[in-house]
Structures are given as structure tokens and as C-alpha cells.
Amino acid sequence: MKGKKWNMTWFNKAPNKYRVERHHRLLGRDYITVKAYNGKSAWVREVSPEILPPENMSKGDTTAFAQEAEFYNHLIDWREKGHRFNYIDKIKVRKQPTYFVQGKLKDGRDVFYYFDPENFLLKQFGFKERFAGSLVDADYVPIKFTKINGVWMEEKKQYLVEGRVYKEINYNKILANVDIPDSLFEVPEVKEFILRQKSR
After folding, report:
1. Distance between CA atoms of 94 and 122, rounded to whole angstroms?
2. pTM value?
3. pLDDT band at 192 (very low <50, low <70, confident <90, very high)
4. Domains, the chain, ranges and CATH?
């Protein structure tokens, strides 16, 4: 695929704590951006090439980030969560037989799950998302799975917008059931910050 490549590190902790670190190199400098959600609020911080103070995300960005933070998918304990799901039928997706499940989330969003009828692994997850100012059809499509500690995990997946590949995610290393401190998701305390002014 052509386009920009990013090195990313994701941290997920049940039930809804989430942290993403994005690394890239530009003109010989390393840039690192951290985004995190502690279950209540979300923040973002640039930590390279300069360490900047953390900033709270906007309400809209917090809502979107919190949706990504949900550790368990919508189908787990869906009644208790207030969602509604219906099995529609066995259909063909990319010429392959697939179980189609349609859902209405508690917040009103429509979601669509497609499962492999042989092993019940997720083949596609569809939803609506705002993209470039417009509400569009989006999908996450797992391409490859790997088994970690007896659980199948997505090793490679694509993000589609209106049926076209917008980005592809490849996981180089996956760790499961490891201890992650809660402090990793909390807003870091800034005791002192020196403002620098560039002389003209």
C-alpha cells in the first residue's frame, strides 16, 4: 500500500482503558504522540522531539476515543449494556458464506457483524463514521489471525471507507494478559514546564 507508515503501540485494559503511542521520523527527528483514555476522560500529549504539557481532548474526540477503548466487543453482555442485536441470515461476503448480525447500540449507532460460519471468527465489522465531514460507511476487516494464550487475535486488518482500503494495520507483536499499571492511562502530572522562546 502507498502512503504514510506509522509505528504504533496500543495498550488496552478491561473494561475501557486505552492508550495509543504513535511514532514516526521526519527530517531526522523522532516524533512521538501519546493519546490515552482512563475510563472517564481522554488526553493527548506530544513527548518528542519536545515534551509538551498534556491537553484534554475535545468532547467529540473523547467520545470517539472512548468508543475505541471498549475492551469487549458490543456483543458481550449486550443486553446488560442496553444494545439490541438480531441475527439476519447467512449471506455471502466477498463470495464467502457469512453469518450476518445486525445491531443497534444504546447510543443509537447501527453496527454490522459478519462471522465465519466454520470457526465463528469475525470476518468484518461495519459501522458509520464521520470522514472528511461526511457520514460514510466504514468497515474493519480482519485479514489474518494468530493464537495468543489460546485466544485468536487479529494480527492484520484493514480499515475500509465506502469499500476502499483507507489504512492497513499490521501487528508485529501481541502480548495478552499482562499487567498494565493504571497510571499509564492517567493524565501525567506536570510539576514544572519551561516555555522556550526562539529569538528572531
Report:
1. 14
2. 0.83
3. low
4. 1-71 (no CATH), 73-187 (2.50.20.10)
